[in-house]
Amino acid sequence: MSQPRNKKLLIISTVIVFAIVVSIFASSYFFSISFDSSKPLDTSIVKNSESDLTKDSEIVDDIIPIKATHIPTPESVKAIYISAWVAGSAKHMQRINNLLDTTELNAIVIDVKDSTGRVSFNTDNKLINDLGASEKRIADIHKLTEDLHARNIYVIARVSVFQDPYMTKKKPEWAVKKKSDGTVWKDRKGLSFLDPANKAVWDYTVAVGQTAYNAGFDEINFDYIRYPSDGNIKDINYSLSEGKTRASNIEDFFSYLSLNMKKDVNIPISADLFGLVTTSDITDDLGLGQVLEKALPHFDFIAPMVYPSHFAVGWNGYKNPASKPYEVVNFTMKKAVERTLVMGYTPSKIRPWLQDFDMGATYTKEMVRAQIKATNDAGINSWMLWDPKNIYTKDALEI
């Protein structure tokens, strides 16, 4: 009798153990599917996870990946520029947010990669990390973009492309070289440029742009998309292959950039060009590789930098163009619109950079507003204000 009884106990024990295993498996399964990474992240879950699951933030991020949100491009973009250092400062952002909250501004441009070459926040991109390009100027990039979105502010990432002294030191084989001795070429300020024809540079630029979009930036604005303009230009080895020119190299980059930035997601992209491209001949690349007609097909928006202070004495008959903000901006924007229409695009594709800094003249609220009026009078309803100090003339802006 004892042997059947022991066998019965063994069967009962086995059933109990199996039930426990099934219960544990089911709990794990339902716990895992309760986190849907396609939905906006509930930050309270992250806080609970830190205490209940693990103190290791990297593991928490693996369980609940951050999904950036985006807002559509406003029909009329009215933006200001700020550096990454200002964006990363709570004190300075309080001032900037007050300006955004109390004026007509609805967009902001923030440095993601400035002309030093450093990426302004820590990323999860392998290429950027392997190159050591990140510098933590903005501590929490996702919080920054989400806070701006909560204000209904369109967030634009500025990426300085070919002027990059960090990367030319890190990867000198990527740099523009001297014709005389093959070393890295530098301009009058000692700044160096990446070679616009180097496809490794193209891929790196795409990686920075996509990383910015994944961090919550709604548009990527590419600056310094040109060959160098200052210094001993005669000593530059342009390394032009047969049949290629500076302009065709830059156009090839534009095409590659657009194709890859829009391959999986239609990421809005814009290009900063010299203000003179609006009035220069279509055959004149200004020595930089920039031609308006070669940029228009590849970007959602073109941003000519038509700061009146940057036009030479005597330009268009003006002894001091900086003192003629309406005239300079209106003339260049009308030319830009004409050329854009000829290419089959609407004036909404043009979005100029305007001056809000003292150079060539002391810029008053009337002079800043005159540029905005000049832009509107040319049939363009979007603009961006630039001040390297990030201190803007509030009285020039409508409430």
Low-confidence stretches: 1-65
Task: Return the CATH topology of the largest domain.
Answer: TIM Barrel
Count every beta strand, where a strand is a DSSP E run of 2 or more residues.
10
Strand-residue fraction? 5-15%
Principal-axes shape call:
globular
Report the structural category.
alpha/beta
CATH architecture of the largest domain: Alpha-Beta Barrel
Question: Secondary structure elements and their pairing?
Answer:
Elements: H1 2-33, H2 43-52, H3 57-63, E1 78-82, H4 84-87, H5 90-102, E2 107-113, H6 126-130, H7 141-150, E3 154-160, H8 165-170, E4 177-178, H9 199-214, E5 219-223, E6 236-237, H10 246-261, E7 269-274, H11 292-295, E8 301-305, H12 325-342, E9 353-355, H13 365-377, E10 383-386
Parallel strand pairs: 1-2, 1-10, 2-3, 3-5, 5-7, 7-8, 9-10
Antiparallel strand pairs: 4-6
Overview of the structural elements:
The chain has 399 residues and is α/β, with parallel strands linked by helices. It folds into two domains: 2-63, no CATH class; 78-305, TIM Barrel (Alpha-Beta Barrel). The chain has 13 helices and ten strands. It has an eight-stranded parallel β-sheet with strand order 8-7-5-3-2-1-10-9. Strand 9, helix 13 and strand 10 (383-386) form a beta-alpha-beta unit. Helix 9 packs parallel to helix 10 (246-261) and helix 12 (325-342) runs parallel beside helix 13. Residues 1-65 have low confidence and may be disordered.
